[in-house]
Amino acid sequence: MPLALTDLLSPDAPVQGELRVSVPIQAWPRLAAAVLEPEGSVNVKVKVAPLPGAGSSAVTTVVGRLSACLPLRCQRCLETVWVEMDQELNLAVTAEGGEQAVPDQMEAWPLLAGPVSLGELLEDELLLALPLVPMHADPAECGELLAKLESLRGNDGPVRSENPFAALKNLKR
Question: How far is it, in rounded angstroms, from Cα 116 to Cα 26?
Answer without folding.
Answer: 19
